[in-house]
Protein: histidine kinase
Amino acid sequence: MSRNSLRLRLILAGAVAIVLTLGLSTIGLSYLFVRHVERVAVDDLQSRAMALASMVEISAGSPPRLVDPPPDPLFRQPFSGHYWQVSLGDEMRRSRSLWDYQLPAPDDLAAPGQTRVLSLPGPQGEALLVVEQSLLVDHDGTRLPLRILVATDRDALDLAEQGFLRDLMPFLVILGALLLTAFWMQIRVGLRPLSQVSNRVRALTTGDRARIGTDLPDEVVPLSRQIDELLDARDAELLRARHRAADLAHGFKTPLQALLGDAEKLRDQGQDGLAGSIETVVGSMRRLVDRELTRARIQSDLTTAEAEPETVINRVVQVLRRMPRGADLGWHVSAGSHLRARIDPDDLTEALGALLENAMRHAESAVWIDVTGSGSSVQITIRDDGPGVPADDLQRMTKRGVRLDQSGEGQGIGLAIVHDIIDAADGQVALENAGPGLRVTITLHAR
Structure:
């Protein structure tokens, strides 16, 4: 795919969108996971804080005091990452895991009965997630503030987040691959109508279709209609141009005939030189007019054109055999009756007539015509046993006005007409020396 490919642009845009979406989804899922883990951790710390409230012992006749907490190995191992600190009035007790470190609690207390979540530094400088539970202990009308701090190392939360991301990444990669595959398939399906339009435009050039048509998706129909309207306008303009060329050529015929009459009168008056000059010029102009008439008759609509080369060849050869020169030659025709070419029969007759007449004029004893088919094409080969053509002149033979036989009467436009006809049928003309003679091969699309 090239840089200007629409499919490549859509794939790149889709890939960028999918990568951004998955990236934002990863950030969002990670944030939600951390919030959830932190919420679970806070609930656990809050439960432990309420359990530590049982450290307050109230006895009759003595003020409340703190006793040993329930045994928990997490809080007995030094620097385990799990800590508690309980303050009742001026009395404070700490978990053994804090060793000799005191949690730097804020000076202000939470409202009695309320829970507050804090972030405090730990004994080794680590970040701690701390839940503060504030209570009041009532004894003999005196209320003592009870502050319970329960903390856990935030590294455990970070490790949980990293583990979650490690587990999530393979699924994100698989999801991204599936999304890219689905997006690529969507692009293929979505752009398939453009391929249909391309195929139909190609069919227009080969003559397999007359118009693109409207049996396409709704989004492509306006484009197909515009192309069909353009083709209609082109065909109408070509038809008008052919009519104008034909009218112009016909319009020249009457004045040219009048000039021939004047030349005849001059000849009667003894002015043979002037009469001959006029007749030469008029002859040249008439041949050019005949060529323009031929070009005006060339059919450009290949959708319905169909010719049987064998029938056309036999008809042309039958005419040439009536000529003195043609009667002396051997005509060898080899053609399959089942072969059909995509060209107007009259156009093919015009082209083969010019080529076979040229072969007749230069042949020594025989002319060979072979018609073969190969796949989607039909080849018509014409060969004579004449002297052939100099190699340097082969490429010049289809150019307008080129004369290789300076002794003949033609104006060098016969092969140019052949080229125009075959080119209009989207075919090809190839010339080569056959040793002896000249071989002309016409390649046409098969029906």
Remarks:
- Residues 326 and 360 are 6 Å apart (CA to CA).
